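All the exercises in this workshop are built on plain-text protein records. A record pairs a protein's sequence with a compact description of its fold. Read left to right, the backbone structure tokens trace the chain's path through space. Once this layout is familiar, the rest of the handout is easier to follow. Here is such a record, shown just as it appears in the course material:
>
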Amino acid sequence: MTRADSNCTPPGMPVIMGVPQYPIEFLFTPGRVTIHFEAWMQWRNIFTDGRGHPADLDPTFQGDSVGHWQGDTLIVETVGTKEDLGLTLLTRGSIPAHSPKLRILEHIHLDPKNQDTLIDEVTLEDPEALEAPWTQRLTYKRSRDQQLLEFECAENDRNPVDASGKTTFSHE
């Protein structure tokens, strides 16, 4: 099996929230929060219009996210993420994979001490892959003058994947 990131496949939820080298844009609109990622030019919808998760959910990279506001905090539940993506990047290897029962809970809010810092408190619950919930706190710094750039992974793919699925690095 080849690594998804070696073949330009987006990492999906929750890993994409923790990719530090690429900016993220949060768009807060009535009934929905849209997160636009420069990396892999992905987007994520968090529906805040009161809907629940669909009964016949097909797993996707970003899963299905529904949320509600509790004061100034956005509470989000995400289910239905693709299983084969693994969580190694976000969890630093402590959770290599997850089951279809993965539930991602987020509490997203501004830092009360610095309104230019957004905090995402992420909790992963998976009764088949985890003995206990796993948590991580992600922080984002606001940049009002930056815009997302076009991202095309394959266009700059100088590092091929070998037969074992590992990325080889070119020294040119």
Remarks:
- Residues 1-5 have pLDDT under 50 and may be disordered.
- The chain has one domain: 4-142.
